[in-house]
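FYI - complex with 2-phosphoglycolic acid, inputs then prediction.
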Amino acid sequence: MRKKVIAGNWKMNMLPDAAIRFIDELTPLVKDTQNEVVLCVPYTDLFYALLSAQNTNIKIGAQNMHWEESGAYTGEVSGQMLKTIGVEYVIIGHSERRQYFAETDETVNKKLKAAFKYGLKPIVCVGETLEQREEGKAKEIVTMQIEKDLEGLTEEQVSNTIIAYEPIWAIGTGKTATSEDANEMTKTIREKISNIYGQNIANGVIIQYGGSVKSSNAKELFSMSDIDGGLVGGASLKSDEFAKIVNYN
Ligand code: PGA
């Protein structure tokens, strides 16, 4: 049985005092869950979040990283820096980074390899635009992203990669993919991984759904055969709402 991983993506929200308060509120609400609970917070919250989450089952992640270890990359943060302060997870290739910060499958691939080099657990985002879906190209686009993003990874690394299928048209729009559509795409992703790395590896890979997940739709989405939890944006900013999503089962 694959574990369900429920990850919050705070994006560019939450000052440190709010982050600390959030984790203090969330801690008792999720302490009994069997699901993996992750909060991907802004860099400026990381240290506070790590301290607040000590001795809890809440794991802390970053939302991006650079692929180099150090050097003249003004404004960037490396995987080594994240790992050194105790960060466990990192989101790579979120559609907002692809859209606004020129991330490509090539940079995603480099970041993914660097994440493994420094012992971070990556959550790699893939997903099609509305236009691509309407043109009937969604599967083609997403499977191509999978192929390019995972290129050159070892079987073990692929096994430890979390994939978040996030249709871009469903992010922050309130429009959720139907659970059937979301499950169909996560199955397609699993098949693609199976074609490259074999059925065994594919069966173990955690594939989340993301895009307007909330407490009212989490159960339906996360109960589908191939959806192993979610990457949650807007609904991860309120501790009680996020706790309900974590405790969907
Ligand atoms: P949303 O964002 O839940 O607000 O749609 C999801 C994401 O961008 O990861």
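The first strand starts at residue 5 and ends at 9. The chain has a mean pLDDT of 97.
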